[in-house]
Amino acid sequence: MSETPTPPVRFEAGSELPELTITPDRYATVRYAGASGDFNPIHIDEDFAKQVGLPGRILHGLWTMAQVARAQTEAARAAGLEGPSALLRLKVEFRGMGVPEQEVLVSSTVDAVEDGVATVKATAKQGSTRIVRNGVAELRVG
Amino acid sequence: MADSTAPVGKQYPPLTYVVGREKIREYARAVGETDPLYLDLAAARAAGHADLVAPPMFVVVYASEPLGRAMFDPEVGIDFPRLVHGGQEFRWERPLIAGEEVTTVVTLDEVRQLESANLTYYVFGHRSTVAGELVSTGVWTNIVRGAA
């Protein structure tokens, strides 16, 4: 193996970071409930979710936010940084409702880089439904 | 109309959580993480860490119990079936490492009504420390729809 002279990902204003896609399987919300401690039945009980007017079980917003975070830390890693140490801040708004068994797409664009900190704008979508909007991440990149 | 007697400014008792190696692995797998820092002890140590590194969003795991106690406080009076998670912000000072003990304090920072849309916003804040050193803060925005 030889060192790659130029990292494949660069944090520069205007550059798009690699997209992240993941399709949560049928039981993703059950595993996330166990891992996170959030057992709200709207995420794990189809009948309950329908009783409260939802189309069915919905994804945890914080699972989706974790995908937005992962897109940032993986981009940092691809740029030669330590992913979890690079992420300083992440802010999101949850809109729409995420559902299991449909692909989630996270898109991220570097907005600015100042004093070694990159500000990234990010969204998460399922098809045409935006499930995270106005995502803003800050990463230490220099 | 929402209950206007919600105790804005109330601070809840601190709770301490011990970050466990297998809990990090369980969480990392549940969100699809593949970075060896979260999963492979040898890789984490080779990168200079004493043990596995927790993904940033692991904050959800150690903050959930103190946040839950605040949200279920009868004085706050959240109508859970009408609750949606409106927004979330986290700031991280550094990643946590397995074995660390993290102490979290939650406060009810704001209760705001958007009467035009019949929504009530409940905004909670958390602050987490390890041995007195700040490691993360969060702003948790919960929205109750059509509060009676």
Structure description:
The complex is a heterodimer of chains A (142) and B (148). By secondary structure, chain A is an alpha+beta fold. Chain A has a domain at 20-25 and 60-140: Roll (Thiol Ester Dehydrase, Chain A), CATH 3.10.129. Chain A has 4 helices and 5 strands, in the order E-H-H-H-H-E-E-E-E. A 5-stranded antiparallel sheet of chain A has the order 1-3-4-5-2. Chain A is elongated and about 50 Å long. The model of chain A has no long low-confidence stretch (mean pLDDT 94). Chain B has a domain at 15-20 and 56-145: Roll (Thiol Ester Dehydrase, Chain A), CATH 3.10.129.10. Helices cover 22% and strands 36% of the residues of chain B. Chain B is of the alpha+beta class and 148 residues long. A 5-stranded antiparallel sheet of chain B has the order 1-3-4-5-2, covered by helices on one side. The radius of gyration of chain B is 17 Å and the shape is elongated. Chain B: It holds the Pfam family FAS1_DH_region. Chain B: This is FAS1-like dehydratase domain-containing protein. Chain B: Residues 8-135 form the FAS1-like dehydratase domain.
